[in-house]
Amino acid sequence: MNTLAGRDILSMADFTAAEIHALLDLARQYKQGQTSPMAPGRVLGLLFTKASTRTRVSFSVAMMRLGGQVLDLNPGVIQMGRGEPLPDTARVLDRYLDVLAMRTFAQADVVAFAEWADMPVINALTDQEHPCQVLADLLTVQECFGDLAGVKMAYLGDGNNVSHSLLLGCALVGMSLTVATPPHHPPTAEILQKAQALASHGTNIIHTNDPESAVRNAQILYTDVWASMGQEAENQERIPRFQPYQINETLLQKADPQAIVLHCLPAHRGEEISEAVLEGTQSRVWDQAENRLHAQQALLAQVLGLV
Ligand code: CP
Ligand code: NVA
C-alpha cells in the first residue's frame, strides 16, 4: 500500500521503515525495467538555490520516465531571486505544479514552503538533510548485502546534511552507523538523539572523534565533502583538521576485508577520499549515483499517487 501519496518529504524521519522498504522495492523494479503507471500532464518543479548535477538531472529524468514534465525554477529566473516572499511564491507555484523538489540552505525554508503549498514538497538537500541521497544509498546497500538490517556503516568526515540523513535512515532500517568527525564538526545533538531514539535494540548509532575505531569491522565506509555548499570559504582551514578522516587505502585496510566504499559525490580526490579508493575495486559510487534515478522515480510515483 502506498502511504506517501500527497505527502511532503522533508526529512528522512518522515518515513517509517516499512515506507522505506516499499520505496526500495519499487525502485528496484524500475531499475530492472518495469514500466510504471504514467503521469502525463503532471509537472515537477525544481526550485534549487544551490548547484546540483545528480539531484537535478536524476529528478528530471525520473519525472520524464513517468511521462511527466519538469520546470527548472532556480531563483535567478523567478521573482523569489529578487525578493518575492517565500509564502507568496509557494502559494502561486502550488496553483501550477503537481510536486516540487527544493534545494536550499535553511531547513526552515522547505518546512515553510511545505506549509504554504498543498502539493508534495520534497527536500532535495538543505544544510540539515539530504533524504533523497540516503534513499539511493540504502538501495545500493541492499544491492550489495541483500539486506539492510544488521549491516555496519562508518561515515567519516563532516557532521553535515548527508551524515544527518544517514543517521536517521540507518536507525530506521536497523543498520548500525558510527559517525566519526573532528571534534568541532559533529552532527547536531538533536539529530543524533533522534536517530538513537529511532534505533531498535541492537542497532548502534554512535558518534566518535576516532576514525580508526569507527572503521573497525565496518562493511561500508562512507564520506562526503569536508566543506559543504555555503562553507567554501572554510575549505583551507578545514583540510588539516579533517585529514585523519580521509578514506584512503590505509584506513580501508582496517575495515572489513569485503567492505564497500560510498560517496554521495561530487568527490574531492586527495581530500575526503583518495583517488585509489574512489576508483578502486571496493568503490560502488557510480552504482550509488545511478540509484538516485531509480529511488527518486519510486518516490515521485508514490507522492504523486501513481502506484
Ligand atoms: N549527491 C548530490 O546530491 O549531488 P548533486 O549536488 O550533484 O545533486
Ligand atoms: N554535504 C554536501 C553534499 C553535496 C551533495 C553539500 O551540502 O554540499
UniProtKB/TrEMBL annotation:
The GO terms this record gives for MF are:
amino acid binding; ornithine carbamoyltransferase activity
Binding-site residues for L-ornithine, renumbered to this chain: 161, 224, 228-229
Pathway entry: Amino-acid biosynthesis; L-arginine biosynthesis; L-arginine from L-ornithine and carbamoyl phosphate: step 1/3
> Under which main EC class is this enzyme filed?
transferase
What are the UniProt keywords, alphabetically? Amino-acid biosynthesis, Arginine biosynthesis, Cytoplasm, Transferase
Indicate the segments forming the Aspartate/ornithine carbamoyltransferase carbamoyl-P binding domain, all copies. 7-143
Domain of life of the source: Bacteria
Do you know which PROSITE patterns this protein is assigned to? CARBAMOYLTRANSFERASE
List, alphabetically, the Gene3D superfamilies matched: Aspartate/ornithine carbamoyltransferase (3.40.50.1370)
Q: Which GO terms describe its cellular component?
A: cytoplasm
Q: What is this protein called?
A: Ornithine carbamoyltransferase
This protein's species is Gloeomargarita lithophora Alchichica-D10
Classification from the root reads: Bacteria, Bacillati, Cyanobacteriota, Cyanophyceae, Gloeomargaritales
